[in-house]
């Protein structure tokens, strides 16, 4: 059996290179209601800052609950992050058929013409599984995310494909940390509050 590093909460430096399309996994004891055990897809990461969406925090509400759309649009809405929580954002695989969409990578886009998207969903020309909706987003000022990486707040993963990340998976944080290696598999098994163990 491979020996686990003595400092089990220090993130290996080779995991720290973030880029657009990377997925961030918060360290297990992040004391933050938005980012506790969260998996965040970075949709933008450059010298002007970073933007991403938390993939594994369902709001328990649907698109019909939070917006004026057709009753049949019972698409789950996720808490995307602490910024602009009163606005809807979306990731999708509709490509440039949705005007003003921005390619992230692997055929996954974000944004685009909202009214056009709702018309597509109502008409059936877009399927609910092609879109993930979020209330709010995660945002970082220039170099802010780099500082959080140096302080061991995030593990950076660069999935071979982000296409499958559009499929809702509330256990994404646990599943992904287990796949990275022995040390991080331990993270996934640490209780949220170790004092209760």
Secondary-structure blueprint of this entry?
Blueprint: E1 23-26, E2 39-46, E3 49-54, E4 58-62, H1 63-66, E5 76-79, E6 83-92, E7 102-105, E8 108-110, H2 114-123, E9 131-140, H3 144-150, E10 154-157, H4 172-180, H5 182-189
Parallel strand pairs: 5-9
Antiparallel strand pairs: 1-2, 1-10, 2-3, 3-9, 4-5, 6-8, 6-9, 7-8
Helix pairs in contact: 4-5
Characterization of this structure:
This protein has five helices and ten strands; from the N terminus they run E-E-E-E-H-E-E-E-E-H-E-H-E-H-H. It is α+β, with helices and mostly antiparallel strands and 197 residues long. It has a domain of 125 residues: VC0467-like. Strands 1, 2, 3, 4, 5, 6, 7, 8, 9 and 10 form a ten-stranded mixed β-sheet that branches. Strand 2 and strand 3 form a beta hairpin. The two termini are 25 Å apart.
Distance between the termini: 25 Å
Spatial shape: globular
CATH 4th-level superfamily of the domain at 15-90 and 135-183: VC0467-like
The fold-level CATH name of the domain at 15-90 and 135-183 is: VC0467-like
What's the tally of helices? 5
Pick out the low-confidence regions.
Answer: 1-6
Main β-sheet description: 10 strands, mixed
State the name of the first-level CATH class of the domain at 15-90 and 135-183.
Answer: Alpha Beta
């Amino acid at each position: 059996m491979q020996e686990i590093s003595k400092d089990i909460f220090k993130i290996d430096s080779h995991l720290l290179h973030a880029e657009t399309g990377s997925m961030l996994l918060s360290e297990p004891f992040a004391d933050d209601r938005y980012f506790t055990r969260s998996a965040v897809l970075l949709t933008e990461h450059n010298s002007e800052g970073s933007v991403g969406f938390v993939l594994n925090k369902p709001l328990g509400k649907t698109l019909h609950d939070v917006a004026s759309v057709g009753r049949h649009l019972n698409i789950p809405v996720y808490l995307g992050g602490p910024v602009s929580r009163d606005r809807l954002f979306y990731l999708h695989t509709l490509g440039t058929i949705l005007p003003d969409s921005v390619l992230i990578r692997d055929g996954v886009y974000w944004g685009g013409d909202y009214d056009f998207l709702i018309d597509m969903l109502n008409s059936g020309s877009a399927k609910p599984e092609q879109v993930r909706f979020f209330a709010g987003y995660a945002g970082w000022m220039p170099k802010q995310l780099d500082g959080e990486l140096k302080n061991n707040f995030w593990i950076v993963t660069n999935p071979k494909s982000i296409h499958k990340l559009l499929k809702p998976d509330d256990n994404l944080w646990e599943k992904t940390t287990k796949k990275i290696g022995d040390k991080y598999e331990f993270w996934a098994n640490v209780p949220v509050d170790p004092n209760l163990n």
